[in-house]
Amino acid sequence: QVQLVESGGGLVQPGGSLRLSCTASGTLASINVMGWYRQAPGKARESVATAYNTGVQNYRDSVKGRFTISRDSAGKTVYLQMNSLKPEDTAVYYCNAAGRGISYWGQGTQVTVSS
Question: Across-strand partners of 78?
């Protein structure tokens, strides 16, 4: 079983920065990819960024050049560095880890961008 623990959400002004962290623990499944998703009020959950064990990374078009995803050398911790934040980035951000056909989710952390 895999458990995901997230941290780093909060309130920032437009143009500010936040760094989200998520650490996976457990031994019953291997992890092939970790990523971040977000869901704003009244909208569907959407992918933000993903990082595969192969080194391949994907970003949503609206965050390219502003957000950076990274993982530690063990592949069990994933980060999301968010710069130049905009009000439209406001959402609950969820950490995800997947492997062997099974997907795991964190509890979600609120990110609010407002002046």
Answer: 22, 71
Burial of 114: CB neighbours in 10 Å, binned 0-12, 13-18, 19+? exposed
Q: Tell me: the pLDDT tens digits for 25-76?
A: 876 467 899 999 999 999 999 999 999 999 999 999 999 999 999 998 877 8
26: left (phi over 0), alpha (psi -120 to 50) or beta: left
**Mean pLDDT, rounded, of the chain:** 93
Give the residue among 16, 9, 6, 8 at the shortest CA–CA distance from 87: 16
How close are the terminal C-alpha atoms of the chain, in Å? 41
- Report the distance separating Cα 65 and Cα 38, nearest Å: 18
